[in-house]
Amino acid sequence: MNVSHLLPTLPARRAPASPPAKAAPAPSPAPKQRDAFFDNAKYLAIVLVAMGHAWEPLRGGSRAASALYMTVYTFHMPAFILISGYFSRNFDLRPDRLKRLITGVAVPYVLFEVAYTFFKRWADDDPSYPISLLDPWYLTWFLIALFVWRLTTPLWRIARWPVALALTIAALAACSPNIGDDLDLQRVLQFLPFFVLGLHLRPEHFRMVRRRGVRLLSVPVVAATVVFAYWAVPRMNPAWFYRRDSAQELGAPWWVGTVMTFALFGCSMVLTVCFLAWVPRRRMWFTALGAGTLYGYLLHGFLAKGSRFWDWYDHPWPHRPLGEIAVTAVAVAVVTALCAPPVQRAFRFAMEPRMEWAFRRRDG
């Protein structure tokens, strides 16, 4: 007899539920690729800065060295400042960017200003030389200038004619002897147009200067500039290129400051275009050094100034042709080494301190 229909129906056993699958972690964003062109440009610009500092003591006995010095000083800092402005385009007053401005610019300024002061006291046998954060010494002016320029970036982004306004301010500074030396304000204002122009450049502008026609035209332009500089050596005060004095302080009428502001801006921009036209676009052996140019800039100053304090140029050999070539090669080698990653790691505590203890933690 089939009694299966009388048995209670048992519920079917369920297979044990599998644990919910964990969501796959979101892939971390790939690190932003650095543009080889700009790293190359920054490295080559800082090499020219070091070469110019090495040539400075040679100018008295060599008209050719003076001509090269004037040519390089026409555009090496303008090019560097232009690129600094280009990479400051997105700067605003967001807390993280202000923090980066303090740790990457203000703190290195304080540390290197103090370090340079103690170095001068020791190397120049001047123990009473004062520490003054209001009077930048030697190369530290660029840091205080960059600090001021970046803080004013939001203003330049809303101005209707920003470059024209910056040029007007620079021209007024060039004929205003009462500005004084606090924070090297003359340089801050007279170099301002290059930073403001960089803020408003776009990638296509840099692609335009790298055209083959621009490269070919740049060769005769630079050659003509060197010839003109050779002619101008005994006729022109190179202090105009430093932009740290007004026209009156350089012994010229006030209106010459205005004329020289616009003339030097035009010449600097022409030579900057010529320089950028020949900067390699692909990765080179020195491309990685472009990330350490500020290290090379600030650290090579100790050797540049020490060479004067210790009278290295008093020997006649550096003033001979082979000596001038050797001095140039040493300057290139030194600043190249100081931009290298091991040096960056060694001095990151001063150039890029984290300083988490100094800032409030952001909620969320």
From TrEMBL:
The keyword Transmembrane helix applies. One of its GO terms (molecular function) is acyltransferase activity. Residues 36-339 form the Acyltransferase domain. InterPro entries: Acyl_transf_3_dom (IPR002656), Nod_factor_acetyltransferase (IPR052734). Keywords: Acyltransferase, Membrane, Transferase, Transmembrane, Transmembrane helix. The keyword Transmembrane applies. The chain crosses the membrane at residues 67-88, 100-119, 131-149, 213-233, 253-278, 285-303, 323-343. It holds the Pfam family Acyl_transf_3. Residues 11-25 have a biased composition (Low complexity). This is Acyltransferase family protein. It comes from Streptomyces javensis. The lineage of its organism: Bacteria, Bacillati, Actinomycetota, Actinomycetes, Kitasatosporales.
